[in-house]
Design brief:
Layout: H1 3-25, E1 30-35, E2 44-53, E3 56-64, E4 73-80, E5 83-84, E6 88-91, E7 103-110, E8 116-122, E9 130-136, E10 147-148, E11 162-163, E12 169-175, E13 181-187, E14 195-196, E15 208-215, E16 221-227, E17 231-237, E18 248-253, E19 260-263, E20 269-273, E21 290-295, E22 301-308, E23 315-322, E24 328-334, E25 338-344, E26 352-353
Antiparallel strand pairs: 1-25, 2-3, 3-4, 4-5, 4-6, 7-8, 8-9, 9-10, 11-12, 12-13, 13-14, 15-16, 16-17, 17-18, 19-20, 20-21, 21-22, 22-26, 23-24, 24-25
Length: 366
């Protein structure tokens, strides 16, 4: 009789130990976790973007009273000597003395050996916004006056463009005014002149926006998209983005929230997203947890990291890049109050196959 409590205690300790090991396995590889700022002049922020310049990392996001409020502006912070500079307003939606619109979805892109470009949008809503851009010749310290993109162009809608081997900058874009539709905008002269593709989908069978673009060693391109269809949607191109396959469901769930991905130097693909499926008859799902998955072929995905798993607040709209030193850098919205930055060593990740849309282990709090 005296041994039973000891056995129960040992089993409990073993259970806790296994749980901790499982949880830590999906935290391995994280080098740095920090907020871009601790306090700011604005109460709410969202939609961060990150780029690597010759002088270091630069982050942009929008902030203001709340999303859609006319006082929402674009802010920039730079990483200098391991510290982030205070957010600096660099773009707003002031039209004239009596009219002001909110700004939306900044996207940073570093032209190789050229300018740092900031794409953003101005307008009352995503169905009627205008694409804008600014340029910086000193890695984000100072910026040009705003330029409007041609009528009907918005540039990359949320996620970073990719530079194709032929020098074309390929931007994943989308519209929301007549159904959610994906299209592409391209420029061969660093955002001076533009061309636009036809929509990839009809906005009826599948409703998708905000594609992220992946490149493969065999020359193929893949997009992964936010959708209203409860799943991340995908499409493939074998001709550098000129034509695309039918938009179809991937093997990963989606909560009708933004995602981002990056093609790593070793040929693998890394995706940051909420591993959450929109409930039946709901417009969207929870924006927690925030996860990282890895794939070799864009089809079979492996769980790699849990960046956030609190049930308090939302953790969303990631932006991810790989820097020249092979480290991975992620920024995302933290509870709509702050922008969080995470640095990851991809060589340290431990992975487990995702089956039947299920994250491999039960997420425990930390």
């Amino acid at each position: 009789m005296k041994t039973k409590p000891n056995i129960l205690l040992l089993l409990f300790i073993l259970f806790i130990s296994v749980g901790c090991k499982q949880q830590s396995a999906f935290r391995k590889g994280i080098i740095t976790e920090e907020f871009i700022f601790d306090s700011a002049a604005f109460p709410s922020c969202h939609s961060a973007t990150i780029a690597e310049t010759p002088k270091g990392l630069v982050v942009a996001f929008f902030g203001g009273t709340y999303e859609r409020h006319p006082d929402v502006c674009i802010y920039v912070s730079r990483q200098e000597k391991g510290k982030w500079t205070a957010p600096e307003e660099i773009a707003n939606g002031i039209i004239n003395d009596t009219l002001r619109y909110p700004t939306w979805n900044p996207v940073l892109f570093q032209v190789p050996e050229g300018d740092l470009i900031l794409f953003y949008k101005v307008g009352p809503s995503p169905s009627s916004w205008q694409g804008m851009l600014k340029r910086s010749k000193d890695q984000g310290k100072t910026w040009s006056k705003p330029d409007s993109l041609p009528e009907g162009f918005i540039g990359p809608v949320k996620n970073k463009p990719v530079l194709l081997d032929n020098g074309t900058i390929l931007c994943g874009s989308s519209t929301e005014n007549y159904g959610w539709k994906i299209h592409f905008e391209t420029t061969k002269d660093h955002a001076i002149s533009w061309e636009r593709s036809d929509p990839v989908n009809d906005g009826i069978i599948y409703q998708a926006i905000q594609p992220t673009i992946l490149k493969y060693n065999n020359g193929r391109l893949q997009i992964l998209c936010r959708s209203m269809n409860c799943m991340i949607l995908e499409s493939w191109s074998a001709d550098t983005g000129k034509t695309w396959s039918l938009l179809k469901e991937s093997n990963l769930p989606n909560n009708n929230s933004g995602i981002d991905a990056v093609s790593l130097a070793n040929g693998r693909q890394l995706l940051v997203y909420n591993h959450v499926k929109t409930p039946v008859n709901a417009n969207k799902g929870y924006r927690t947890p925030l996860n990282v998955a890895i794939s070799k072929d864009g089809k079979i995905w492996y769980a790699a990291l849990v960046l956030e798993d609190s049930e308090t607040g939302q953790y969303s709209y990631p932006s991810v890049i790989q820097s020249a030193d092979a480290m991975v850098h992620v920024v995302y919205t933290w509870r709509r109050e702050k922008i969080k930055y995470v640095k990851i060593n991809p060589k340290k990740l431990t992975t487990k196959k995702i089956k039947n849309e299920k994250w491999p282990i039960k997420i425990t709090k930390h």
